[in-house]
Design goal:
Length: 142
């Protein structure tokens, strides 16, 4: 094989492969999604009470926005029954909750039998557009 035949084959190969590589790299650049702008949130803390007004010391609490359902805030209860809500945005926790009405659900820890049922509050709780809000959720009254 002489030098000109090798150049001819390489040239033909590069004319075929180069457009494919360029198209693939351009398509890859456009595939990245924009990061979503985090919503404005407001700090919310509180306490969950059970029967006899005793603190509920384990479980999770969620505040699901009724106006913007894609936004949900979550908190794990501390041993004294207190909680601090955080909103999950693209895998990152940001402090607080968006303003507006929220459906609130308490999730008890699962036992081996997994028979526990979440408790939905009968009425939404409204988070105002201000920080340092505190709610007491009395599950013993349900």
């Amino acid at each position: 094989m002489n030098h000109s035949t090798l150049n001819s084959r390489f040239s033909g190969f590069s004319r075929f492969l180069l457009p494919i590589l360029v198209a693939a790299s351009v398509a890859g650049c456009g595939a990245k999604s924009k990061l979503e702008q985090p919503p404005t949130t407001y700090t919310v803390t509180g306490k969950v009470l059970g029967k006899g007004g005793q603190p509920v010391s384990i479980g999770d609490l969620t505040f699901q926005s009724t106006m913007q359902p894609k936004w949900r805030a979550r908190a794990a209860l501390r041993p004294d029954g207190t909680f601090t809500l955080e909103t999950l945005v693209e895998g990152n926790k940001i402090p607080g909750v968006i303003a507006g009405p929220h459906d609130v659900t308490y999730y008890p820890p699962m036992s081996a039998a997994q028979t526990e049922v979440p408790i939905n509050l009968p009425l939404p709780i409204t988070v105002e557009a201000r920080n340092n809000q505190e709610f007491t959720i009395d599950l013993g009254q349900l």
